[in-house]
Design goal:
Number of strands: 4
Radius of gyration: 32 Å
Helix content: 25-40%
Distance between the termini: 72 Å
Structural class: alpha+beta
Oligomer: single chain
Number of helices: 4
Shape: rod-shaped
């Protein structure tokens, strides 16, 4: 039987065709290229990724535990000296990501806290204690502590 018109000699004219129509080795080459691209993407992500504090408190967290707390206290007292209203200070702290509420067992004291992701599976805990009388700021204290986080 002769091949139909327009079909090259040696090509089956009908029936099932074996394979996917690609040249041998194409899938292997695609797998190697895909693996190389995934490796580059993973390497780039690993090099750029830095699990550190993000947001408004990032600058204080980068300074470290004692220096960051001192800088934050200095900046807060510069903007809110003793005798000013407490509510604007609380609003600013909440805008920076801290949660504020009455301190347990202390009348006229507010505590504002936040937890930030630090390096090497550690958390930085920020605590701002505010002492107030008649809605007026008497004093404030800022403290940072580092805590290990279980994986």
């Amino acid at each position: 039987m002769a091949a139909p018109k327009g079909v090259p000699k040696g090509v089956p004219s009908g029936g099932p065709v074996r394979g996917v129509g690609w040249e041998p080795g194409t899938m292997r080459k695609a797998a190697v290229v895909g693996g190389a691209l995934l490796a580059l993407l993973g390497l780039g992500t690993w090099a750029v990724h830095e699990p550190a504090a993000k947001g408004p408190l990032e600058g204080y967290a980068r300074l470290g535990v004692p220096a960051g707390a001192e800088a934050m206290q200095r900046d807060l007292l510069a903007g809110f000296p003793p005798g000013t209203a407490v509510q604007p200070l609380v609003q600013r702290l909440e805008a920076q990501g801290l949660r504020c509420g009455p301190a347990p067992g202390a009348l006229g004291t507010l505590e504002c806290t936040a937890r930030l992701q630090a390096r090497e599976h550690r958390q930085l805990r920020a605590l701002v204690a505010i002492w107030a009388t008649s809605d007026r700021l008497m004093s404030l204290s800022v403290g940072f502590t580092l805590q290990d986080v279980a994986r």
